[in-house]
Amino acid sequence: MARSAFDNAQFLAAARQLVIERGPAMVTVDSVTQRLKAPKGSFYYRFASRDALLGELWLQSAVAYQEGFMAAIDADDGLGAALHTPAWARAHLDDACLLLLYSREDFVAGDWPSALRKGVREQAERVKDALTRFARLAFGATGSGQMRRAAFVLLEVPLAAVKPHLKRREAPPPLVDELIRSTFQAIAPRADAGRARKSTVA
Considering the entire predicted model, what is its pTM? Predict the structure, then answer.
């Protein structure tokens, strides 16, 4: 059997552009192959289904976003982790619109393709581990209340702050950072003070 002239990256790029333009619900095998002028057989040579393509696209975007977030957590820089969301959105506006305006379930309805489940599980575990480490640093414990505060200050506040701007396809302005910073310092002053002490000692 002859190999397809189209590769995975081309199908993912076409799907990415369609998501940005129309949203994930409008991405179909037909719309992707038409965008590439590729035969359907070429698509199915690479991907088992539309869900497999969109699942891989979502996971690829999530992992790319997560790199800077995890680097900040590894450095015990909770504020840096919170501010990563607007910084990443400014540097990667299209990808931020794709990842942050939609939920994981918007990309794949029902069960994820088996080949992607491991990657999705590992991605979720990395986020949970980051929240646990931050909760211990900022609040001294990892109970349900501390974990809820960690998720709020690291994930929910930054997302809420950038989302109105992403809906308008505009980069988050500096005011967004100020709002995130103020909220972080109000909820997790211990983490901010602890990092400042480490920097002074270093």
Answer: 0.87
